[in-house]
Design goal:
Elements lengths: L4 H11 L4 E7 L4 E6 H18 L7 E5 L4 H12 L3 E3 L8 E5 L14 E5 L16 E2 H5 L16 E3 L2 E2 H14 L7 E5 L6 H11 L2 E6 L6 H7 L4 E3 L1
Parallel strand pairs: 1-11, 3-4, 3-5, 5-6, 6-7, 10-11, 10-12
Antiparallel strand pairs: 1-2, 8-9
Length: about 240
């Protein structure tokens, strides 16, 4: 039985490391990015290594994530959980690290105070930013300096994981949402990121249920049927 989020991710990767685990669409930009379990796990490991080896963070520390649903957001959140750090997605006043979208990073009303601040443009092909917001490092450039294997960190089910919830509480919430959304093991789920911005819904519920994810930002709803067919989707969560 998996009692922590890193254990859930590890189980998902072991089941089928080569098949798509997370496919991301942005109908505004035309971006489509497909990540196998192994590829997503590499990004997660790099992020965890950045936090642990690069910043010296661990259990008891917090990382604010003020990013929309996106494949990079998934890697960042799962990396935070793997490092034993608590993720906060509600824009707290302060945190030990901050991951923000470059488009809103300079907005004083939404910027969390943190000694280490990373911005990303959420660009196709994980391209780096052409211009950095003041006081920020480029997440894409920085994370690529770290190894794609993470040996693991001490993470217990009672440790804080997401917005004050422990790993056990977060997984229980995700399991409940998976049941409410009728996500079945082995299914491929198309999720509208606009109507389901909570990572419990678009990320953790499918992972807990043993499903793969087709995450759609700025979804053109006229494309749902054709996309569901091309991606072999078995459930649409609109």
């Amino acid at each position: 039985m998996q009692t922590t989020i890193p254990q859930v991710l590890a189980a998902a990767v072991r089941r089928d490391p080569a098949s798509p685990l997370l496919t991301f669409y942005d109908d505004a930009s035309g971006d489509r990015t497909e990540l196998s379990g192994a590829t997503l796990d590499n990004w997660v490991s790099k992020t965890a290594n950045l936090l642990v080896d690069g910043l010296g963070l661990g259990n008891g520390d917090t990382a604010a994530v003020t990013l929309p649903p996106h494949w990079q957001t998934a890697a960042i959140l799962l990396g935070i959980f793997s490092a034993g750090v608590e993720a906060q997605t509600t824009a707290p006043e302060s945190a030990d690290a901050l991951f923000a979208a470059a488009s809103g990073a300079a907005d004083p009303s939404t910027t969390t105070k943190a000694p280490d601040r990373y911005a990303t443009g959420l660009l196709p092909f994980a391209m780096p930013l052409r211009e950095l917001p003041p006081g920020f490092a480029d997440f894409v450039l920085e994370v690529r300096q770290f190894g794609d294997y993470f040996p693991g960190a001490p993470v217990n089910e009672t440790d804080s994981a997401l917005n004050g919830r422990s790993h056990a509480e977060t997984l229980a919430a995700a399991t409940g949402r998976a049941a409410e959304l009728t996500i079945a093991p082995g299914s491929r789920v198309l999720i509208d990121a606009t109507t389901h911005p909570d990572p419990i819904d678009w990320l953790l519920a499918p992972l807990v249920a043993g499903a793969s994810i087709v995450l759609c930002a700025d979804l053109d709803r006229t494309k749902i049927d054709s996309r569901a067919e091309s991606e072999k989707v078995s459930l649409v969560v609109g």
